[in-house]
Protein 1
Amino acid sequence: SILGATGSIGQNTLSLISSKKDDFKVVGLTGADNIELLARSAVDFEADMVATADESKFLDLKDLLSGHNVEVCAGLSGILEVASQQTDWVMSAIVGSAGLLPGLSALEAGANVALANKESMVAAGPIMKRISEINDVRLIPVDSEHSAIAQVIRGEERESLSKIIITASGGAFRNFSKSELVSVTPDQASTHPNWAMGQRITIDSASLFNKALEIIEAKEFFNLSASEIEVVIHPESLVHAIACFQDGGMKAHLGPADMRHAIAYALHEEKRLKLSLDEINLADVGTLHFDKPDLDKYPSLKLGYEVIEQGGLAGAAFNAAKEEALDNFINYKLSFTGMADVVRATLDELNSRNELKNELVIETIMELDLLARSIAKKYVEKI
Ligand code: NDP
Ligand code: MG
């Protein structure tokens, strides 16, 4: 099943399956707004069931699929219905914290979950890991850096690892000064120099909030401390992660800036199948650059490290505040640099109210998600 089938990751996953239709049976597909694409994908891939997150689109989706043997569901309950079907493998690629409950449902139903939805690892990593252990199923990284880490540490002992380096392209405004960043518009921030992705992650890449989420995601996936995770700016986006070992050796993963590489690795249980992706010609590339990120210019990354140090509910609060700030940036109600100010103010207020000391359970995370969004909204109006 593919959760978020109409998105960038979802469609890339389907495109990988399309050349091997005989090897796969598609059980369920989910989407939200784009019901035309959802219906078309369900027919093309002979899915058993589909769900749109938008209940008001239920009848239209049903109409689009009339005459086809596809069960149609809608709303969160419909998405969870699809997510909890018995399957071998689920791609969790809904965007934002809306992906948390569906991803958990898939793990609970006994599926191996390929996790693109980094937000669920940021908000509830320990819970995701516990459920996957209890059900004896795998949680497989899809984010390119985390897939790269899994590839470079494979076969190595944990004790031999000294740190992980994650690369960041630096996004669209790598060469902008801090003051130039203030007036960046949503349109400008929605184009990435190296990767084709959904709008939200593209903007998060430009603000480095994406990298902040990714260092927290790395901590959860690979049990790393803040001091064991380093970020370097690497504009070429060819090296995705580097494992550094106690003996001074380093293993880097180089790969195409194309998510089909990481998705295929997750889909084929770490087997390397032939993919028709652009080949990297190192002589043409010539030079690879690595720079230290400027934490003053990108306070989002600094916040990410603080969240790792704090642990517990800090990740859920950070992600929710970031999502609210991003919504407001997209709607022209908050500046590009204002996003980090809003997230910082929200975390400070939640800490001063002792809201992040509660137990890390799903109910608390869901409540905190709403609270963090409402506090962030208040700061959007103030800042
Ligand atoms: P897109 O915006 O392209 O797609 C998002 C998907 O989620 C769509 O299927 C969308 O449906 C669906 N969706 C949106 N809102 C909801 C909701 N409330 N409930 C259920 N479904 C919803 O995002 P991406 O594919 O770019 O990203 C998906 C996830 O993967 C994110 O967590 C992102 O951080 C992560 N990721 C993405 C990468 C990339 O290259 N794109 C790389 C690494 C990680 P619809 O379109 O029909 O409205
Ligand atoms: Mg990534």
Note: The longest strand covers residues 161-168.
Protein 2
Amino acid sequence: MKDVYIFAIESSCDETSASIIKNGEEEINTVILSQIDIHKKFGGVVPEIASRSHTENITIVIDECLKGANMKMEDMTAIAVTYGPGLAGALLIGVEAAKTLSLIYNKPLIAVNHIAGHIYANKLEHNLKFPLISLVISGGHTEIIYMEDDFSFKNIGGTLDDSVGEAYDKVARVIDVPYPGGPVIDKYAKKGKHTYNLPIPMDDESYNFSFSGIKSAVINLVHNEKQRGNEIDKYNLCTSFEDVVVEILTKKTMRAVKEYNVKQLLIAGGVSANSAIRERFSELCDKENVELLVPKLKYCTDNAAMIGSAAYKMYLKKQFASYDLRIMPTLELANKK
Ligand code: KG4
Ligand code: ZN
């Protein structure tokens, strides 16, 4: 078969990204323009500012990606884009750019689900062996997905309120760590001890999660200590918070791994960059003789390479989108069990 070059675009939140992926697994070039510094002063992503920034940068990012690869759009086999879930105004910019390129250069258009992208980030470095369980943990999602085959997604559980990334970012905010706080909590947690008593959220028989309670428990604790004039030990607080998060994520996910009798566990999404989560899953998977796949750090947070990786599977199945493709901000990966 002729080599397949997918030109992928991702703009669902606060990263404008383009990537060229050869035959589904070889990353030729990826450009990621992060808006983190712009949103930092607001303490989180401001949708209107995100979409304006995507508008300003999308053509630059596309151009840089082609130039860096020393390729032309004519060399591409297909154009892929994230069409949901995500921020409406942000998704629109990527989708309109992809449609335009597809029309002008007469290339098939592939509409990719952002969460499928996170899962297929793992395919850039590893072979997927089915059936498998995937834990998607990001700023927007916390889901346990069972996959019997490529692109067969069954949602067996997920958060009922906040995502785990949201909890990290809000806990960070209350101890004056700027957005996105997840990576900083990761570092602080390494320096502290588990001294604060926090509730283990939703420790039940389901595969669902709830992170709003622990987030509120941390916020209340900090406010109460401040009112009493006590100093919070932010390192100890981060260790205590992270221990509880790691405990509940690993407990439920490893139960699913056993119940569904899978040989591979995939972790994906921005929070999968967390070192404590990686280490604990690695220990538990070793013990259970399960292969753990975790993306390289650069493929954990939002990027277009993962979209190109997922799109390749769709290309092989000729799952192309038409020009009336619409953004789907609340798109789900799979129906709930
Ligand atoms: O996947 P992503 O880039 O965007 C969404 O699709 O939501 O994930 C961003 C989230 C943020 O909440 C950020 O704080 C979190 O991932 N994150 C981390 C770490 N690196 C990024 N959380 C904990 N530990 C990290 N090392
Ligand atoms: Zn994401």
Note: The chain has a mean pLDDT of 95.
